[in-house]
């Protein structure tokens, strides 16, 4: 389905991108380029950007089913942070301390790189070096903060993080039921819509062609196949469709489309802001199993995001799930719990979208030198900085100049496929339900559910 009725409805960020959202021309007939990229999100456009920066003569084209920024890149929470889907502790267990440290430092460097590029290319992405604050809401969340800090200390990054008392958190932001916080100056927030639309204009200026309203139905080495013809590639094809790649039969089980939903308030008054504080606009979260993330937007609203729209049988992706009513009601209630002084606040926008989750929660960037097919994705909701890193790595690999970044542990790897249905639906829905039950029991001061240990082991990576 296309959104010819108006892409501004997809998210506040696209509505507020300050750009004409009219579709670019579609591919009309078969054509040939050097590099053909599926997907006009950050991964596809960063890859195009770095390819053209390294060789301006390359013929690069992007094929996008809707418009640039239609996917998660035009819908996300705006956290541009060095967070990775695997925690520092999980990465250390799996890859060792040096590799875990290298991943986090490379992601922080990507945050800085995004700032550098937006300045150099005059993309008004409203980049704000806001830092990140994770709060413990309830005494039960405090040990989680302590173990997060211990994991950073073990990989030599403890000096980037500071444990805060409840009073110190309140000096930054006044949230109910806070027992402490973990603050880092690392990470930034930005305007996702302005970044993706600005990036699209930038790559076009560098010579890239973006075909919109063009669906890739199949791929093979050397070609993306669309309804209008083949886009043949002499050098490489790149699959950068993230969660939506599951619609292609060859990749149906590579990722799981998991929904993340957002509610946005009206701009708050000066009086409302003075009750809350949050002057520095840190990226804000708690340690809940069912993730919550909050952003102070450049125009003074609160964006409150969460997982929670249930997994749909057969990995179905449908516009209706972007606004799953029970989840949106839960998000609005949560915001009022965090900030009771906003009991009467109006919500002006709600939207969501699918993120791509591999079965082991581990993103991958790979390029097969034989088939000349590149892939990057599986960011599990942490793709803003990771996709920039992925674009740089893919460009290096495609141009045959792999450097230091290519030794990061998620490069040239492949996660196992998800299990077939109906088992997939049963396991995923059980996990979503169990994690929510654990959160609710802990928040109510009740004993953890009997299956908490089992669910946490199943979900541990
Ligand atoms: C609600 C929400 C909140 C999020 N919050 C954050 C956050 O705060 N911080 C963070 O780091 N990450 C966040 N994420 C994740 C982040 O947005 C993504 O990881 C990132 O945008 C992925 O970029 P991408 O280019 O790989 O994929 P996408 O942006 O999804 O782009 C893929 C594109 O490919 C196109 N496509 C797919 N299949 C085809 C096909 N067959 N033919 C043609 N075109 C096709 C799609 O239309 C789409 O435009 C969030 C995601 C969501 C949904």
Number of domains: 3
Bound molecules: flavin-adenine dinucleotide
Helix amount: 25-40%
CATH class of the largest domain equals: Alpha Beta
Report mean pLDDT, rounded to a whole number.
Answer: 94
Distance between the amino and carboxyl termini:
35 Å
Total count of helical runs of at least 4 residues: 12
Biggest sheet: strands, sense, closure?
A: 8 strands, mixed
How much β-strand is present in the residues? 15-25%
Overall radius of gyration: 21 Å
Structural class: alpha/beta
For the record, the CATH architecture of the largest domain stands as 3-Layer(bba) Sandwich
Q: What is the chain-wise order of helices and strands?
A: HEHEEHHEHEHEEHEEEEEHEEEHEEEHHH
CATH superfamily of the largest domain: FAD/NAD(P)-binding domain
Uncertain ranges? none
Task: Write the CATH fold name of the largest domain.
Answer: FAD/NAD(P)-binding domain
Backbone shape: globular
How many β strands by DSSP? 18
Structure description:
With 461 residues, this protein is α/β, with parallel strands linked by helices. It folds into three domains: 7-76 and 192-255 and 360-407, 3-Layer(bba) Sandwich (FAD/NAD(P)-binding domain), CATH 3.50.50.60; 128-188 and 257-357, D-Amino Acid Oxidase, subunit A, domain 2 (D-Amino Acid Oxidase, Chain A, domain 2); 423-458, no CATH class. Helix content is 32%, strand content 22%. It contains twelve helices and 18 strands. The protein has helices at residues 12-15, 42-54, 88-95, 97-120, 142-154, 166-172, 192-205, 270-276, 325-338, 384-398, 423-443, 452-458; strands at residues 31-38, 60-63, 79-80, 132-137, 162-165, 178-184, 188-189, 209-211, 216-220, 223-226, 229-239, 256-265, 283-286, 292-296, 302-307, 347-357, 364-368, 373-377. The strands form three sheets. Strands 1, 2, 8, 9, 10, 11, 17 and 18 form an eight-stranded mixed beta sheet that branches. An eight-stranded mixed beta sheet has the order 5-6-4-13-14-15-12-16, sandwiched between helices. The chain has a two-stranded antiparallel ribbon with strand order 3-7. Strand 13 and strand 14 (292-296) form a beta hairpin. Helix 2 (42-54) runs parallel beside helix 7 (192-205), helix 3 (88-95) crosses helix 4 (97-120) and helix 11 (423-443) crosses helix 12. It is globular, with a radius of gyration of 21 Å. It starts with 11 loop residues before the first helix and ends with a helix. The structure holds flavin-adenine dinucleotide. The site of flavin-adenine dinucleotide (FAD) has 41 residues, from helix 2, strand 12, strand 16 and helix 10.
């Amino acid at each position: 389905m296309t959104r010819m009725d108006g892409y501004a409805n997809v998210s506040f960020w696209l509505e507020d991108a300050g750009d004409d959202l009219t579709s670019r021309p579609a591919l009309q007939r078969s054509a040939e380029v050097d590099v053909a990229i599926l997907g006009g999100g950050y991964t596809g456009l960063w890859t195009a950007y770095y390819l053209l920066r390294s060789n301006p003569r390359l013929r690069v084209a992007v094929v996008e089913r809707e418009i640039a920024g239609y996917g998660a890149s035009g819908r996300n929470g705006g956290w541009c942070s060095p967070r990775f889907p695997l925690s520092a502790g999980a990465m250390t267990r799996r890859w060792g301390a040096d590799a875990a440290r290298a991943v986090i430092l490379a992601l922080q460097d990507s945050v800085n790189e995004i700032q550098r590029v937006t300045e150099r290319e005059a993309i008004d992405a409203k980049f704000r070096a806001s830092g990140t604050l994770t709060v413990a809401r309830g005494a039960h969340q405090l040990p989680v903060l302590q173990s997060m800090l211990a994991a950073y200390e073990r990989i030599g990054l403890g000096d980037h993080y500071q444990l805060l008392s409840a009073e110190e958190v309140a000096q930054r932001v006044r949230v109910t039921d806070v027992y402490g916080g973990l603050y880092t100056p690392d990470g930034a927030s930005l305007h996702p819509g302005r970044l993706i639309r600005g990036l699209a204009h930038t790559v076009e200026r560098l010579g890239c062609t973006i075909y919109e309203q063009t669906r890739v139905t199949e791929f093979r080495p050397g070609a993306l196949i669309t309804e209008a013809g083949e886009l043949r590639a002499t050098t490489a094809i790149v699959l950068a469709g993230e969660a939506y790649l599951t619609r292609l039969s060859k990749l149906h089980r590579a990722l799981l489309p998991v929904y993340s939903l957002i509610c946005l308030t009206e701009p708050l008054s000066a009086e409302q802001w003075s009750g809350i504080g949050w002057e520095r606009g840190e990226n804000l979260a708690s340690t809940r199993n069912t993730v919550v993330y909050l952003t102070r937007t450049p125009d003074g609203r609160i964006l409150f995001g969460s997982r929670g729209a249930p997994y749909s049988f057969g990995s179905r992706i449908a516009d209706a799930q972007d606004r799953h009513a029970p989840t949106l009601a839960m998000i609005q209630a949560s915001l009022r719990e965090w900030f009771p002084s906003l009991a009467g606040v109006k919500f002006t926008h709600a939207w969501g979208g699918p993120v791509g989750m591999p079965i082991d929660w581990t993103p991958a960037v790979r390029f097969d030198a034989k088939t000349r097919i590149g892939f990057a994705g599986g960011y599990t909701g942490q793709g803003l900085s990771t996709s920039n890193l992925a674009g740089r790595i893919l460009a290096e690999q495609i141009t045959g100049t792999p450097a230091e970044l290519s030794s990061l542990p998620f490069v040239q790897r492949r996660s196992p496929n998800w299990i077939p249905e109906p088992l997939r639906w049963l396991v995923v829905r059980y996990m979503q339900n169990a994690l929510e039950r654990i959160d609710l029991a802990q928040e109510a001061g009740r004993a953890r559910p009997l299956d908490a240990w089992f669910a946490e082991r199943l979900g541990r990576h």
